[in-house]
Fold:
Amino acid sequence: MKLEEISKKLKTTLELEDSPVGVKLFKVGEELPEIAGPAEPIPYCASIVRARKGASVLQGKDKHGCLLGAANLGLINVPEKISSGEAHSSMGLFSSPAAASKTISEVPRIDPETTRATLVFPLEKAPVEPEVIILHVNPDQAMWVALALNYNKGGRHFPSFACVGGTCGDITAIPYLRNVPNFSTGDFGGRKRRAPEEMIVGIPVTLIEEVVNNLEKLGCPR
Structure:
């Protein structure tokens, strides 16, 4: 199934207002496509917002405005101020640097300095084969995605999130590294860029055609 068709079917069956977002992580040494990056550095979650509205965004490490996001995606090492917990505890999100540091240490991330650039794009306009598909959904739509993922083999889902690194770690790195889907509320920064009722789902591209087929078999929406 072509990516354009997959995007169309996801929009139709789930009644999505915006485009599913494709993610490609270019490794060090890989050639980059000729796609414009942002004029100024922006967080990875902000690039996802642009992609769901129709833009393709290519970001090297110099264009990533969130250092935790850049670290979780493998572009850089985690800066000391973040890994120590100082940055997030100073925001009032944790009672101590130790609590923040523990959380940061457990965020799934790609090996540092192995990623050259991130590329995000609306799935129907995919310039390359994505590795992860990101959906912005409400709880009802998330339920149908979960059912579609279980339709053939059954089982349970075990979402992993901590409200820190929600888009980069939870929804991109986990599906990329483990080849499993993940559901997340997102984090305090990413939520500023989403409607209050929205959550996010990251699906490895290897599973997306199965999800689309099963959504249709489920008769979604009902």
In short: The CA atoms of residues 36 and 58 lie 6 Å apart.
